[in-house]
Design brief:
globular, 2 domains, Aminopeptidase, 328 residues, 13 strands
Length: 328
């Protein structure tokens, strides 16, 4: 049976059900990240309830399909496409994707990015997405990352912890790397508990990069690094070194477990020097998903797969890390 689902915009009250749907897939909870996306003026979580495809008063209104969208014109991102087991093959995945693309286009987005699993790629290809490059999952225990090597590689560039309000000063830097304006979402992320902003500065005091670090739980079993934007490997090394410093706030939360706390970063394969830097510092790399891109024509139609992908950002090589698992 193919469904014509009623697609809704989730509210804050739906966050617990979205968390449960994620847990049912074996994914991390990500409560705070979902709330950050939901609270951002350019973010949405689209949902389908069971009653929308089975109009029976005895059927619960539990969530059976969802996806997240972020409009950062002219770039948009789709993430976390989920269709509950038992409801697949009904067209729900296509339905939420079409709604996501329509929503993004209406808000000025002309290029859409996503990170595709092997299972999701056939649907995305049918919709017009083309493969660009794999993304990678970087991970290591904090004690395994060579802080001396990172400090040496950073040279004269230094990075330090900053107030969340300083994020506004980095809007132009982020846009050059990412390709669109996602400042409101990054500010929503920095309002999350246990989330910190690091800024790298060159010798003249100019901004050379920034990174967000966050813990999913307290005491933390892991520290998630990303997004990371850096104008050079030296700036990226300075940022990672600062995040690993002895006085880093996540270490106070971790206590004696700090050395074994895992550090994770979602690394775009489109920036190979980011992979090399993380690995040279002692991190391990695991192949993750496929970065895919869809471009809209001026009339709203989708560009043909044969057309070369539209350039994203004036300095895409500055993008060292994304936000996992949403990959914004």
């Amino acid at each position: 049976m193919l469904a014509t689902p009623q697609i809704e915009t989730a509210t804050t009250a739906d966050i617990p059900a979205l968390v449960q749907l994620r847990l049912d897939q074996g994914w991390h909870r990500q409560d705070a990240l979902l709330e950050a996306l939901q609270s951002s003026p350019r973010g949405r979580m689209l949902i389908v309830r069971e009653a929308a495809v089975r109009p029976d008063s005895t059927v619960s209104a539990r969530l059976i399909a969802t996806t997240g969208v972020l409009a950062a014109p002219p770039v948009g991102v789709v993430g976390n496409v989920i269709v509950r087991t038992g409801f697949r093959g009904m067209g729900l995945g296509r339905g939420v994707m079409m709604a996501a693309l329509e929503w993004l286009y209406a808000r000025g987005v002309r290029t859409v990015l996503l990170d595709a699993t092997d299972e999701g790629r056939p649907l995305y290809e049918k919709l017009g997405f083309v493969a660009r490059e794999y993304s990678w999952f970087g991970h290591a225990a904090a004690s395994a990352l060579d802080r001396d090597l990172l400090r040496e590689h950073a040279g004269d560039i230094r990075a330090s912890l900053h107030a969340p309000t300083d994020m506004a000063e980095l809007a132009a830097l982020d846009r050059a790397a990412f390709g669109g304006d996602r400042l409101s979402f990054l500010e929503s992320m920095l309002a999350m508990p246990h989330t910190w902003l690091y800024i790298a500065e060159d010798e003249g005091g100019g901004h050379a990069g920034y990174a967000l670090a966050r813990c999913l739980e307290a005491p933390p079993e892991s520290v998630r690094v990303g997004p990371v934007v850096a104008t050079s490997d030296q700036a990226a090394a300075a940022l990672l070194s600062a995040i690993l410093a002895d006085d880093a706030p996540w270490r106070a939360l971790a206590g004696d477990a700090a050395p074994t706390t895992q550090v994770f970063c979602s690394l775009p394969g489109t920036t190979p020097h980011a992979l090399k830097l993380f690995e040279s510092a002692g991190g391990q790399l695991a192949l993750d998903d496929m970065i895919m891109q869809l471009d809209f024509n001026d009339d709203g139609s989708v560009a043909t797969p044969a057309a070369p992908p539209r350039p994203v950002g004036t300095h895409p090589e500055w993008l060292y890390g994304w936000v996992a698992p949403m990959v914004f």
